[in-house]
TrEMBL record:
Keyword ATP-binding carried by entry: yes
Protein's recorded name: ABC transporter ATP-binding protein
Family matches, as InterPro entries: AAA+_ATPase, ABC_transporter-like_ATP-bd, ABC_transporter-like_CS, ABC_transporter_ATP-bind, P-loop_NTPase
GO terms, molecular function: ATP binding; ATP hydrolysis activity
Alphabetic keyword roster: ATP-binding, Nucleotide-binding, Transport
Superkingdom of this protein's organism: Bacteria
Domain ABC transporter intervals: 18-250
PROSITE patterns cross-referenced by the UniProt entry: ABC_TRANSPORTER_1, ABC_TRANSPORTER_2
Pfam families the UniProt entry points to: ABC_tran
Record organism: Paenibacillus agri
């Protein structure tokens, strides 16, 4: 549905895909100053949830814990309502801040990387899935291009596609549009909102851009700063379909202001 921002799927808020209870984490180098202290939050099937917080408050660290790259110092993490074990590595699709496309590999070869690690399906099957997804993501015909031949927005879409190929219904997207210019970012928002429904994924998204958080999310969590405090939640009750000029509407402006105020209150030292 081009030019619109409709997500027909209902978020049921029944099945918890991610559930974090009183989770804390400290890096070994600074064991007495935990990055995350007693964090609790939940993400339900089909939701788009953003994590917002000041730089260094531990957003990427929390992603790494959910993805299985780090283990919590204390507290509980449940994925798909099952207590998460060290075996979760590779089961959660995680897109880090940089696109990390390998420059010497074509788009197709980059997108086959998750398959090379898992090899749970045939190469022909995954290749045809990549070609089909390239078409669905507006990138038809670029499978033999190299990353340096693509625009910033195209590279991010390829990195997103590679994340999808990892499989599973849960995507962790760490500031995927942070490095893009304003116009490209807006195009990416339109694009993402258009394909979300088709993809039928649950998304946890990190951003520093408060408008982006309001435009895309069903809910937003504000993580406390290093000085401590609790996680705050904002329900984004804007109707869907959403559209790019929504940021001028009164409710959008109110939510944006509420988010900014809470962010300030939550992180002020
Ligand atoms: N491997 C590491 N070893 C020690 N400290 C680390 C390590 N990785 C991150 N940190 C520290 O942990 C804190 C949280 O980092 P993290 O990247 O999770 O924050 P963030 O909220 O994602 O920041 P940003 O918004 O700037 O990306 C920072 O103070 C960072 O310096």
């Amino acid at each position: 549905m081009k030019g619109s921002f409709y997500r027909a799927k209902e978020v049921t808020r029944i099945t918890e895909i991610i559930s974090v209870h009183n989770l804390s984490y400290a890096y070994a180098k600074s064991a007495d100053a935990p990055v995350l202290s007693d964090i609790s939050l939940a993400v339900h099937q089909g939701e788009f949830v953003s994590l917002v917080g000041t730089s260094g408050c531990g957003k990427s660290t929390l992603f790494k814990i959910i993805a299985g790259l780090l283990e919590p110092s204390s507290g509980e993490l449940r994925l798909h309502e099952i207590s998460a074990t060290a075996k979760r590595l590779g089961q959660v699709a995680y897109m880090p801040q940089q696109d990390l496309l390998l420059p010497w590999r074509t788009v197709l070869e980059n997108c086959l990387l998750p398959w090379e690690i898992k090899r749970s399906r045939s190469k022909a099957e995954v290749t045809s899935q990549v070609i089909e997804l390239l078409e669905r993501l507006g990138l038809a015909g670029i499978e033999n291009s190299f990353p340096h031949e693509l625009s910033g927005g195209m590279r991010q879409r390829v990195a997103f596609l590679r994340t999808l190929i990892t499989g599973g219904g849960l995507l962790l997207l760490d500031e995927p549009f942070g490095a893009l210019d304003h116009m490209t970012k807006r195009e990416m928002h339109s694009w993402l909102l258009e394909i979300l429904d088709e993809l039928d994924k649950t998304i946890l998204f990190i951003t520093h851009d408060l408008e982006e958080a309001v435009l895309l999310s069903d809910r937003i969590y504000l993580l406390p700063g290093r000085a401590g405090g609790s996680v705050e939640e904002i329900l984004v009750d804007l109707p869907r379909p959403r559209h790019s000029k929504m940021n001028y509407e009164p409710r959008f402006i109110e939510l944006r202001a509420e988010l900014e105020r809470k962010l300030y209150d939550n992180t002020a030292v």
